[in-house]
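Most newcomers find our protein records easier to grasp once they have seen one. A learned vocabulary of local backbone shapes supplies the integers on the structure line. An example says more than a description, so a record of this kind follows:
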Amino acid sequence: MTPNEVQMTTSDWLRTLVPLVDDLPQDIAESERYRRLLNALRALFPCDATALLRLEGDSLVPLATDGLSRDTLGRRFKVSEHPRFQMLLEAGRPWRFAADSDLPDPYDGLVEGVHGDLEVHDCMGCVLQVEGQAWGLLTLDSLTHGSFSDAHLDILNAFGSLAAATVSAALRINRLANLAQTERQRAESYKLAASAPSRELLGQSTAFKRMQKEIDLVAASDLTVLITGETGVGKELVAQALHARSSRAGRPMVSINCAPLPRTLVESELFGHVRGAFTGAVSDRQGKFELANGGTLFLDEVGELPLPAQAKLLRVLQSGQVQRPGSDVEHHVDVRLIVATNRDLAAEVRAGRLRADIYHRLSVYPLHVPPLRERGRDVLLLAGRFLEENRSRLGLGSVRLDAEAQAALLDYDWPGNVRELEHLVGRSVLKALGRQHPRPRILTVTKADLDLEDRDRKAHVTEASSVEAAPKAEMQNALPEGRGLRDAVESLERRLVQEAIERHHANWASAARELQMDRANLIRLAKRLGLYEGRRKNAAR
């Protein structure tokens, strides 16, 4: 290369430098920033292909290419398997390979317009140093022998400094964006925690007081608590009480319901992800564990977690380390875990749907929330709270239950527990208001407004419908000569219920799931068939 040619190349380099320098403080997408960098590189150097590669562990990952096949971006070049890359990294400065070098070229078959091995060609590259460490490589390839000279190495050395500054700018902008997103998520967590309904636990029954003592006992510790109970008993409210009475009360409580989460997004929700980990992952994202750092994480319906997520959850519980999908970096978290389920987790372990080791980790301190039917007159206390909430919402002066309505609430079995009571009260207040003209100062909710008798009738229909699931042959055999249909149906019901209870070792919840019934309805049916009291007596003996 002649001095004039060098001077011209330098001049071109200076003209190209200015737009790149102007780009440094700008908020430009990372991919666009790297594309402009490679375009400038090809404009300055007589080359046919360029690439920017990031060093990740023992491999080089292409971030941007120009003149190489599109599939190059999906490759991972293990440094130990590519001597040219290894020499560039070890050299620590721009390096030019001899045109006839016998070292295999990593881009064989990847340069556009070339089929097969790269014959004699020019190749050079340099290491990009970012924050005092080798961040990656810039590589240039020319199909024309003699395209590169020692003078180009000096220019590449200067350009490499600009490329490192470009990478640093991209990294800094990404860090700032991730930090902003993290702070927004954390602020949202605090906001949600502050704005969450401040309902305190309410009750005076023996079962409720026993649960309160358990809460007071375990709240101050950092033990993992497994809250069990039927659907609608208020397990999340118990979790909130545990957090509020703990030393972490000043930190956020992050809640997540595992049941409705798509299996493909469970790990992302819990552990976060990095950009590019899967389709749609356009940026780094913190998971619920990181958001709850220093506070409490509540996993509702934990029995719904798929097995792969269970394995990762176990690792977090054992080591306190969270690894985002798509990343090799681990983050330490300090989280108090509270989980809840309405399933029999021991049965889930036996069925192979829950890992035994995760079960033992989650059930460090089991805490059972009693169903509403076992809480006696707590039903009226809770009804009073819901009546007051509806009074305030509807702008009424006062709302009350008459004596028959109170008796009906106490007599009802509450298969849907506190949630059912809340919905029933809200609906009943509206019904009572709808039949009062003009709008009364004191609204009285009657037994008719509750409509509990109709709900009982529907429950009995559900019980009877379970018989329809029996095979036709069984139905035919259940009606021997001389017996009526009612006796035959009752006999079949008794046999089906008894067999289910025996199969599940007197676990009524499991038996109810098999029979596709609500547990309360199953118990009611068993009482009618004379099976429930007998079971209780046998258990007592």
